[in-house]
Queue: 3 jobs
Job 1
Amino acid sequence: MTALDSATDAATRGGGPVPRGGGQTVAERAPKRPISPERIAASLTLVALVVLGILAVRDVDISIPAMVQSRGNAENFMARVGGLTFPAPADLAWLIALTVGLVLVGTLLAAVLSVPIAYLAAANTTPGNGWRAAARFIGVLTRALPDVVLAMAFVLMFSLGTLPGILAIGIHSIGMISKMFADAIEQIDEGPRLAIRAAGGSKMQEFTSGILPQVLPSWVATVLHRNDINLRGSVVLGYVGVAGLGLEMSYAFKSLNYGKGLGIALVIFILCVAMEIVSSMVRGAMLGEQKHTRSWIDRILHPRLGAHASTQVERPAWAASPETAVRRPWTAQRIRHTIAGVVAVLVVIGSVLVSQINWMDLITFWAKLPEVAAKFWPPSFGNYDASAMFQAMRETVAIALAATVLTLLPSLLLGSLAARNVAPSSGARGTARLLLVGIRGIPELILAIVLVVITGLGAQAGVIALAIGGIGLLGKLIADSFEEVDRGPERALRAVGATRLQTYTSATVPQGMQALIGHSFYMLDTNIRAATILGIVGGGGVGYYLLNASQGSRYETVTAIVLMILATVLVVEGLAMWMRKVFR
Amino acid sequence: MTASASDALIRLDGVTKTFGTTTALKDASLEVSRGEIVVLLGLSGSGKSTLLRHLDGLEIPTAGSVEVLGAQVPSLKGRALRDLRSRVGFIFQQFELVPSLTVLENVLTGSLSGVRGPRLGLWGYSRASKLTALEHLDRVGLLDRAYQRSDTLSGGQQQRVAIARALMQKPAILLADEPVASLDPESSEQVMALIREIAADEGLTVVCSLHQVDLAISWADRIVGLRHGEVVLDTPTGDLTKSEVMEIYGRVATTTAEIRAVAEELVEAAAQVAAS
């Protein structure tokens, strides 16, 4: 009998700890849990951020009594609204077309500019590490510059109209789009690309024939997703003078025509939800084609297609000889693709036309550039007190932190209920998903504008607006990552006899934890940018000073504030990257 | 069957290739003359793929010289390298078709080195090249699949599309890296027969890597055995003896299961040799 046998024997007989290795107990012999200093530092930072967030929530003073008090304001406000009014139908249709058009053109501009940047930034296509670093820096920089800040600068350089908005959206969106494009390039199958190289294809041909067909579905999905985000963001562009629904709404609120302002807000909300539904349908159709799964619509249209697919049908007439096969046959699928393509092209052309771009501006812009640029330099706080500016920046960060902390719990709850493997019933899941889509549809700024009117100027409106808006995004991300966890451990725990809640806490949450931390930091990142913008509509923080400086033509102050925002965003971005790395 | 030096299309001389600390090829020399059908035989990791990739300029040797179609491959760059690659067809184990493109477009990518600039979609190619591509598809028996997405085809069909793509290059040499390792026996037979048939019709020189001894003996004119990156065997298939196969397989088997597998292979190989 070996030592191992006797040990297991003793254990099965219930003999307690077996004295081995000099009479040590199991507890003494167990290896010590390895501790990584970096992980401790990261955990402490995480705890510190949560504590700061809770303190910020307390400082903002969102208390139930205050809410009840402000109900009076709300009633007052509602009385003054006196019912929603809308612009004349023709005007409204024009405003909707203009807003959607300029957002689409801006997003497409960003998509086109993102292609070379993504090519340089992806590890498998970049010509060198220097190029890669430069491309990624452009991505981070454009992401850190809020589109509304860019729009302010462009409004100064161009005549009023759509161009400042298009350029602002176009430049700011490069950050996210080029990152997602590059990720898609890094995930391709290298084989087809290698095959084209082996056939003597050039680098350019490798890209267009080997890489592009593989990444295209993911790229289109990214652009559609970003387009949704930009449509919600377009509201605030109106506040700095970009044409469209946002500008109309800002006029209405400034002239205290609350009924009309809220009417336009409602239109924007419906527009956002409609756009979200359309883009998710397009995404679904594309992904469905990729996976060869058939939607229920397909099944109704071609009920017997599945049975035919595998069996060899007789040779179609067009395939009689190579000569007859040169003309591609018009199959139902080809007709569908062609129609979709034509519609897409028409939408793009329509968007460009409707945006009424003043092309002359693009030419005169370069002449004006040195003069305008000179006004922005050197940065200076001017007649603002530097300490007051830092205080305002701190308030912005506090708003973002407080909003993120307030978002966490409701998002976790709603996100879990929306995950297929957690939801107790499909009804509960459907309701949760619907709620998330609805919340995501509300542009945060509209929420903030309405809240500012109710609760008055200040941080409170900003925090509540961001916290509610965040649930839509974070909840969806949490639901998606919970649905992506390995189902094996869940089944194992259920087999052990664990309850639904126990399975959730011991199998689902631990697997989704890393994603949860990553998404929460993404949320903080987004909130900091959003919080600077909120100030513009009166939601507290540094944005208020930014708007004032720009409207007072104190350009060097605009530069100073933008640099301060940029530095803060980059610090948070760096922190988020570090967290994602440590908790991977 | 041995090549006279002047007629050699492929000439490797003392090629060594190291990746970090591992040596993939060790002082490998090989000559292949016009019209020969050669199989590189060896276990996975013996350096077969690395050797093939050198012939197409996909790898640069650490030492030694690689001459293909009269050109020193490692010194080629840009246009000259792409011209050489266009005259050398390459068939991959995993077919390496672009899944979201149609079968016809995949075949047409074989002609990319002959055109300038990128091509997006079918309308980028001339009617003449489309016709040629369709003729190649007809030849591999897949004309009626021309406008289907390539990932809707079975493995054997995909490999036949890849052969049509290689034909599109009008190659002088056809390289095939384990072309049937991912296929079922029936498709394997079809694909190997097709390669042989096309090679005979077009007068192609073929270098194909395989790990199945029986298939190699029945298919090739000449077998080159590789072990740990070294050429350990070079013989016409007719003369292949049991002891030479032992040289390739026997010494690398270490576990009982492997030795048993090798023994079975040897029995089969002996039967094949006896039959031919």
Job 2
Amino acid sequence: MKISNIFSRKNRILLRELVVTDFKLRYQGSILGYAWSLLKPLFLFAIMYVVFGYLIRLGSIEHYSVYLLLGIVLWNFFSEATNQGMSSIISRGDLLRKINFPKYIIVLSATISALVNLLLNLVVVAVFMIVNGVVLRWSALMFPLFIIEIYIVGLGLAFLLSTLNVKYRDTSHIWEIIMQAAFYATPIIYPMSVILDRSEVVAKILIINPVAQAIQGARYSLVTKDTITVQSLFSNGWYVLIPICITFFVFVIGVFYFKHNSRYFAENI
Amino acid sequence: MKQTEYNVAIDIKNVSKSFKIPLEASNGIKQKLVNVIKGRKGYRIFTPLSNIDFNINKGDFFGIVGRNGSGKSTLLKMIAGVYAPNKGRIIVDGLLIPFIELGVGFNPELTGRENVFLNGALLGFSRKEIHTMYNDIVDFAELHDFMEERLKNYSSGMQVRLAFSIAIQAKGDILILDEVLAVGDEAFQKKCYSYFDQLKREKKTVVLVTHDMGTVERFCNKAMFLEKGSVKLIGKPHKVAAAYSRSNDESYDSSLDNQKMENRDNFEVEIFDNNGKSAKRFNHMDTMTVKLKWKHENVKNIGVAIFLDNGEYVFGPNTFQDKYNLESKNQATYQVKLNLNEGEYFIKAALMGDSDNDVIEFIEEGPHFNITKDYDFTKWGGVTKLDHEWR
């Protein structure tokens, strides 16, 4: 597999068609159709806002509603990219058994679908930012970098998990449990300060997680300077290299493991 | 690289394929652990193909025949790159379009139109390209009124028609077809046949798996008979088709085959020209004399047939049909006026008892002969020139 072939004309066409199909099928038969892409994060946000904004107040953060929404939206993106990526190879088994095409396109298309969904969700976030009167700072330019970071971790994991899932169908159940734990191990519904008050070490460990680092970074860049990031926690900007290295490490491992096994997907599914 | 190798479209070198079939219907970790603990392998090795070695040249229409489970589809999938061989290698020279199944990627929830674009993308077409050929596809499939309906509302025949109409738009050098004919009605089969004719005219390389020996003999210029995962025979389609048909005959005992080969002098067929000389070349309208000698008892009926070199049947009467009483008990002469077009032909001959089914001995491929180009009806084509007049 040459790098130049990855985005050859034929592969681009196929990738596009798979993403489009995926999107068409997602809300097939529903009356509201694409509107669900916007409605789902809105309702989730409404629930979270009532629970954590009024019932259980954790910390006091400026623009807490937007802060919360952005975290949820980014986590959902990560969750969707890994889950859909993981099941993508098996669910496209019918194709794999009949024609030969680069297998990574399947995983790529699943994660790109998640990316498209994220972009729609970010429209909702943008609306809430305006409603809440969040003032954009120059740091907002950093925001896309955090999305890219989550995408790369998500894609790497999707490669790894989809390959494992072909061999062991237990993978999806195990991943479900891991994601449950990871959701609470990531500062999404609670502010980082809650952890920091109890243990600085735990806070430091938690933020080394690339997804946590990216979510906190994204909040810092878009919503409020109050956000605790790797830089503020370690008081040394270079520590940000740790989650970035983890990101690339996961990606490289995923790609190699996938590439090594993809030759035999057709017969093992 | 040798000069001749440039003509090879698909080079299959000593290829073997085996699958691990799990013994328990489980892909789980638990089963794996149980097997490790109990020291079991947990799977059995199934080898559908072993040591396959052959070439397909550019422009060949290559037929693959064999019974269910002989490894045809596995081989086809390996050529198409779906499966990777465990041993050996497969080199494909040219753009390969696989039709292991028609309508790959068809989704029942999408409309006919959307499925055209999806299936087209899998064949390598961009949206723009499909837009330009879209009307042709719909015309050919005869589905004008249905394109905006979901595929799940199509009949299976309609789905096949749509899939086939997209498939024939694909422009590759090598086409892989797996039993496409098995799914359609007669009208569909006719369309398939004319598509095959077109492929032949365009000198495309085609690999075709089929159970229909008629198709093999009609279209293929080379064929292969797979049996239990190895190559039984590669050669002229009519020979392969005959070998395959015989192997399907339950009552047929293949050991007899060898006996007959060894005792060739029990039945001899020779051809002579007008002057009584042994001959291989004839002119149009020459008379050919076929002399048959045999040492069998109870021969009641003899058949002599002429076949085209590609296995197409030209003409073949038997003495019973012609109400000719065999005078001799061990020889006969058959004379025929060769009203045939130029080309290569060969003789098949059979000795029969009382009924047609009672074949005493059969010569699958007797003497060959050529009709040389002295009479110019090649421009009309065909095999023979029939008496005709205009009024």
Job 3
Amino acid sequence: MKALAARRHDRRAPIVLLLLALLLTGGLYAVLAPTSADAAPKTATADDVATGEKLFQANCATCHGPSAGGTEDAPSLIGVGAAAVDFQVGTGRMPMQMNGPQAQAKPVQFDDEQIEQLAAYVASLGAGPAIPTDDMVDPAQGDVANGMALFRTNCAMCHNAVGAGGALSQGKFAPNLWETSPRHLYEAMQTGPQSMPVFNDATITPEEKRDIIAFINEQGDVSPGGLDLGSLGPVSEGLWAWVVGLGLLIGLSVWIGAKSS
Amino acid sequence: MSTHDPHTELDVRGADGAPQRFEDPGVHEHVHRQADIDPKATKRVERQVLLLFTLSILATIGFIVAYFALPPGETPESMRTSNLALGLGLAISLLGIGIGGSHYIKVLMSNREYVEERHPQRTDDATREIAVQMLKDGAEDSGLTRRGAIIGAAVTAIALFPLAIVLPIVGNVGEDWNVRKFKHTMWRKGTRLAYDPTGRPIKASDLTIGSVAHVQPADLDEAEHPLDEKAKAVVLAIRLDPRDIVSEQGEGWSYDGIVAYSKICTHVGCPVALYEQQTHHLLCPCHQSTFDVADSAKVVFGPAKRPLPQLPITVDDEGYLIAQSDFHQPVGPSFWERLT
Amino acid sequence: MTTTTTSKATTPPSAGARAVGATADYLDQRTGLGHAVKFFARKVFPDHWSFFLGEIALYSFVTLLISGVFLTLFFVPSMGETHYEGPWASMNGVEMSEAFASTLRLSFEVRGGLLMRQIHHWAALIFMAAIVTHMMRVFFTGAFRKPREINWVVGFVLLILGLAAGFSGYSLPDDVLSGNGLRITDGVIKAIPIIGSYMSYFVFGGEFPGTDLIPRLFTVHVLLVPALILALIGLHLVLMVMHKHTQYPGSGRTNNNVVGFPALPVYAGKLLFNLFVVFGVIALMGATMSINPVWNYGPYDPSPVSAGAQPDWYMLFLEGSLRLMPGQAEFVLGQYTVSLNVIIPAMVVPGILFTLLALYPFIEAFATGDKREHHVLDRPRNRPFRTAFGVSLLTAFFILVLAGSNDLIATHFHLSINDITWVFRVLLFVGPWFAFWITKRICLGLQRKDRELVLHGHETGRIVRFASGEYIEVHKPLDAHERWLRVQHEAIRPLEIEPAEDSRGVRRKGYRRDTIRQRLSQVFYEDRVEPVTPAELEAAHAAHGHHGEVEAAPEAHGTPELAGASGRTGGGQHLVDPQDETSPETRNR
């Protein structure tokens, strides 16, 4: 009788293990990336510009050139504006650690004050878009419905319908937007970092940008249908149908079909 | 049959008279389950089955309660709660029945195996003979065997009558069947380029280098079937550094570095909308055809063959972008009569 | 068939039993129900978990019908324009079709509507997945052989109808994602030479997208396809009952009998409760996992598109096929455009895959030259060519599915989409051949292992030292049931054909056909491992006959007692321990 009982355990163990493994995978899948902090922009002083220049020479000049005019490895920063610096440095994309298809977001290497000083220095080199005010990027003031209409025409083809991210050619990709701060979203649209096109104030007005931010702000938390499965569309749904749905059903079939001890 | 069947030999004994195959030892002896011999185990299983069915009853009651107590409400949270409560109620109610019943059958219903004979599908010769005779008699009684003309006429009539149903279907479902419409869009000389979806006209000065605008004709709303027209007319206007432009499909079709290309893929018609600013490549998210905007939108990768058609543009007196004409070739996927 | 009447008949029947009896009598007098009961009630069905795969498909279809009826009560199949007003903020005031608006309404405002919608969509995915796994089971066990070829074809048509049902239903909400799917369909239709443009007009009632498509798809989805599926499921089941179910090989299971449980009560009970299990699991999915959230995609508009634009999984292979094809294949003939870059991936590739699938039973029957009925299933290892062929078809399908997901593979594994596409282009040609080769090797290896086991028994890990100082490992012989499973099959040999000319030197008719058949047969059955014969087992034991135990007369061989009971010992490396025989019930299942 004991031998029979042991055999019964054996038969169910793989199913239980499979379910546990699934749960574990699902749990890990749900773990989210760390968020980046927000800081309100202040007006820059001459002091800031001077400190910014020192920071620039120490950290950026190797690639962008001592006068920020650009080299073979990196573009000129004259005229890119404070917004571009705040986005690139504030999301950790710059300074770049290694060459790859594109600069990726990573832990930020400077504190808020240093980023402001760097931005002030680059802004002093030539006129460019400024860092938006908190008011300009406040999702509460945006129209979600208009934001969605604009988002799906201008952004969804790269960033996915709800901003989950998507692939570009040759290993580049459009990142997930759920954890990006409203200010960085605004700056990215404004300056067109890397592969991303520029959406200046004429093509998408500041109010429209705020609407888009309001729409993105709504995504990535609660989905009315339950787990959102990464919001990746039919491929992930198909995968879950096979693994969870058919997996459970086949597991139960094996149980029903197995002889009782 | 001219081939020879290897299987007939399989049961033949070998040369030395030893059997070529083992013999079937016959069905296993019936083994009693724990629940067949141990009354305690039986009781335990009975309790489990009862519990599962009770669970199902409770879940159905829970579903009814949730239906009234948890409306979907206005927020995603309340919708999810409602869906979860109703769904779990239904699932537990169903699984309680399903698993409870299966458990009962597995453990408490007799598990004695029976053996039933099979018979070949083919009917025996006697039956076949009777069947054939019946068919013959039937054919004879019908009197049709001698009247070939009637059979021919009847078959023809029956074969033709569905035309009366098919013709109106085929005739009507294609509306006017004017497939030449594929070759033209609503762009005309002087049509303003407008932002999609707002319909605001675009000034040339709106676009800075690296900018992209998703474009529809400014008079789209006046079209008879706006969606049908939009499906052909959507365009991407992109401003490049004029020094980066390698080639264009026509002389003077761009304006100060602003080029406009059809957004409809020449492969199977997805909107080609992923513009990579640094490489000037346009990528289709459906099948990854890649077009080089700086070089006449030629295909650089993927399943498309032809470049995206270019829309010749210029500016009007007020500085708004306008079309010089319609596209000079059909937009979108290839079709048989495309070049006729 | 034994009867199970007991002495209980003497006790007076209860009120309930009387009522049942009266009802039965009423019905029988009017319908002759007794015949049907006599035919069905104790009909024997074999039991195995893999026989439930078809049931999963059947019950997900039942689930589809139940949830589908619910949805039709609230869905408006119209492309008329409307503006949404409701609880979903990002859609407020947006212009959309009635179809999309009613989908939002039934998801957000109808109580239980979202649940039913999600159940319906999950059930559709499970339906197709269950059909595919059921088909795999039938294929790999050879259940399609005579007399079941027709039922295979019926099942194949059901698969195609399932695709049609899924595709038409997927497009009904009129959202951007499915709309782009329709647009791709339109592009594929237009690529058909000569009639393509007219076909496109036929489908869309004019130019894409038009205003006719959703109502037309609705009729196809809720009437035409389900009616056909229902009719064919009926035929599928009638044929199944007529043929009696196949059974896995094992002791006592032959081509002339069926071993299993009676329809009443065991099989009928399992059949009934399985419905609840399947519906229950799908309901669980609908409760907890979001599927096709169309409000994320928005109403259809020909301009936008989103990353991750893919169809449901069962159409993904077509998407992959389209993605892999290089564009150079398009050419112009005179002044007509021939889009081979679309025709090949969207029509030729699936055409080849599906034709091979549908015709396989007939191809195999032709190559085998076998006209007998088969009711005992094959173990996949015993038919290396078939198993390898099936695995290679599946490999091709799977590579196409992965190719259809290449953008997600690129983002999740940080790879270049262009590189992935190239790898899959190569793999599509290399993968199936490799899969074929390795599967065939594995099958032959498993067969050799079976032979090994039959000839030498199980290793026990017990080492015994003989007086002579020799060490040997004790081997436990297989009991008769275990052995039967491994020797019951026939190793089919390639066909031999009659010569081209008869004795008078006249070329006979049909010789060419026969050479084709012979060549095919060689491809199928050239490599094979024959099952152990009693004589070989004798020889194996004789070779190890350490203790001089001479076998009994040859006539005795092949009886179930052969190895187990006579206590024959292995020599050299083997010693057989009769006391330690495996319990028959633990093996051979």
